[in-house]
């Protein structure tokens, strides 16, 4: 009886591409989460700066009003007379204190961008920054775990091809029956890139993995600089 040789199948190659595409999508989810986190940091820090500016700007007008009311009450011979004097004389004071509030508020908001209030800015933003760093570290850990997977640590396709568009196209070659093995699919992709304008531009200058590695490196340098 003649022994039949085992015929290689394409299932392993296709499974590899499916796993790669899944890892890429999870990595892109991390990138989107980073963007959301950065926007939330900006929103929350701006909110705290605005609140502090409003509180500082309100101190002087409130002080003026307290002094003004106390002076009117002390000068009046009766409560009714004091209230009448307060109503008449407060009309002009309202406009003046509102203007004063706005001027101080604008100046405070401008000062947030100055190096003169660097320490104050750090104190005001410290709780928000702490939450941000905690969540950012969690995203770094999540990203590193994905990048440690074989599809990134030991890739079977060129690094610049590890992108959702290119991997999806390689899978399309398998699903349409145009390719049965990874090498054939890669050959077809290179042919498409060489012969068509659209596919020649499909490979990005920077992949999601490149961006994540760079972002993690930047975060680590930032932490090292603050230690």
Automatic annotation (TrEMBL):
| Transmembrane among keywords | yes
Top-rank lineage group of the source organism: Bacteria
What keywords tag this UniProt record? Membrane, Transmembrane, Transmembrane helix
Transmembrane segments in this chain: where? 51-71, 91-112
**Protein name from the UniProt record:** Uncharacterized protein
Q: Which organism is it from?
A: Brooklawnia cerclae
User: What lineage, starting at the top, does this entry show?
Assistant: Bacteria, Bacillati, Actinomycetota, Actinomycetes, Propionibacteriales
